[in-house]
Amino acid sequence: MGRSPIVGGNWKCNLDKAGVEALVKSLNGMDVAGCEVVIAPVSMHLDKVCSSIKGDIMVAAQNCNVAGAGAFTGEISSEQIVDIGCKWVVLGHSERRAIFGETNEMLAKKLAYALSKGLKVLYCIGESLAEREAGKTLEVCKSQLDPVKDLLDAATVVIAYEPIWAIGTGVTASPEQAQETHKQIREYLATISAPMAEAMRIQYGGSANAANAPTLSACPDIDGFLVGGASLKPEFADIVKAIAAAKK
Predict the structure, then answer these.
(1) How far is CA 67 from the centre of its chain?
(2) What are residue 224's DSSP bridge partners?
(3) CA distance linking residue 244 with residue 247, whole number of Å
(4) pLDDT value at residue 206
(5) Alpha helix stretches (DSSP H) within the chain
(6) Model's pTM, two decimal places?
């Protein structure tokens, strides 16, 4: 049985109340047949989105605390995310790693805790331009996955490969580059567990848009997208449609 496609929409730190209402209204009219869709608003909008989005679109938090509730000013806990109806959380995004200093070890703790509370996780990995040019793409991806290798279960985790040099830059990895890296990631996963590697969904997340989604979707080891800026635009529906059609 093939891997079912999954597209995530990372809204990042965008939209006011009116913008959220307008986007949810648009998404509620979107055809999501044949593709799992997960959207990730900012934390203050999670409750509103969970209560107003249609039932076949899931909602994710963009981050969670390394532990439960308590003296962690500015954080949100997995328990609180679950309590308002969210099923997913995004962890390891390059912006969290680079701007907020989240380490592989910290993210391993976050992943373990989130999974223990019943959340599913979009787990992000990816290399910088300097690392790619130095031929270290797979080395970097492995270093980010090694600390969580015992937590990788295709039923609860989706890996989002996001080449940092392609996030928000308008530069996209070519289908050949993306497929090569996705294939290498899957081959690495197979050294942990062949069945897990075959079942694991791996998203591409580097300036995915309506124009490049069809060719990227045709790659056998690309199982979906984690979309940034385009998830706020009407073309998000075209991205979902492209991967759903390619993976029928």
Answers:
(1) 21
(2) 6, 203
(3) 5
(4) 85
(5) 17-28, 46-52, 78-83, 94-100, 104-116, 129-133, 137-145, 175-190, 194-199, 213-217, 235-246
(6) 0.97
What pLDDT score was predicted for residue 34? 95
Q: Compute the distance between CA of residue 126 and CA of residue 107 in angstroms, rounded to an integer.
A: 14
Supply 242's token pair.
Answer: 């492209």
Low-confidence ranges of the chain (pLDDT < 50): none
Query: For this structure, is 162 an active site residue?
Result: yes
Here the tokens at position 40 are 């990730």
Written as six digits, the tokens of 121 are 């996780």
pLDDT of residue 207: 86
Tracing tokens 């989706």 back to the chain, one arrives at 158
State both tokens at 122.
């979009």
Query: Is 93 noted as a catalytic residue in this protein?
Result: yes
Nearest 10 degrees: Cα torsion 226, 40, 128, 217: 0
pLDDT (0 to 100) of residue 196:
98
Per DSSP, 36 falls in state E
Catalytic residue among 93, 95, 102, 235: 93
Helix, coil or strand: residue 108: helix
User: 36, 102, 127, 162: which is the annotated catalytic residue?
Assistant: 162
pLDDT, residue 189, reads 98
Q: Residue 152's closest CA among 182, 101, 186?
A: 186
Contacts of 141 (CB under 8 A, 6+ apart): 125, 126, 127, 161, 181, 184, 185, 188
